[in-house]
Structure prediction request, 283 residues.
Amino acid sequence: MRLSELIPFLNELGTEPKKRLSQNFLIDANIVKKIVATAQISSSDVVLEIGPGPGALTAELLNQGATVIAIEKDPLFARALERLQTEDRRLTVYEADALDFDFQQIEFQKVVANLPYHITTPLIERFFERPFVSLTLMVQKEFADRVFAKEGTKEFGSLSLFTQFHATLFSRFFVSSRCFYPKPSVDSSVIHLTKKDPPANVSPLFFTLIRKAFQQRRKTLSRALEEALAKEQTKQILASIGIREDARAEILSLKEWILFLKKALPGIVQENGNSCRDHQTTC
Prediction:
């Protein structure tokens, strides 16, 4: 939906973009098409879309033959989406807050969405609680930088480890703030990833300790985790896996974090295929 089309549409509804809902609408048709192409949409796909707003992305998904489940919090936009309904009823709209929505009640293979920035992290955590094939998401560029970050960089953190634990990261592309109305204060990126079998089964404590270490990232691991592990124990385990004793959280790769915590707390990590008790994890 171009800006010349969006403004009359908003006027017809008697509304304008709401800052409290992070409503910044895509007005570049090429970006919309590129998102759908990146998601590799086919007519057999059931796609979940969060916060469709006026429906530019929704329309393109439907044009590609997908079945779309749209979750829209704004009642005006939720009702307006019905104008896109197909003859074979491939569009289902829920007027709901995605943070409160029970995703277990629906079945979908792919998520394609321009996510409101303030709910990106909790939504991605919730997606990983259930089966899916891929996520293709418009997110804040800074968020994408953290997802794709490598160990040893300032962007690398608990979010990087969490997504890389659960998913294979395929691609990303930059989207200028000029592609939105109203123009946001930050640029965006579209990220594409697929869910994978995690490299290990872990207890909730695994990511709790990782978060704690990164919350104090200027401290060495032996100091950041001293409430859970004795300093000398941490140093000895790090040395045993070839990591310097004064290492900080961002130095360890995902593989090294798994090895470190497996040695530090027996039972927190199981790599033999046996499920840990309550191995659901959040970041």
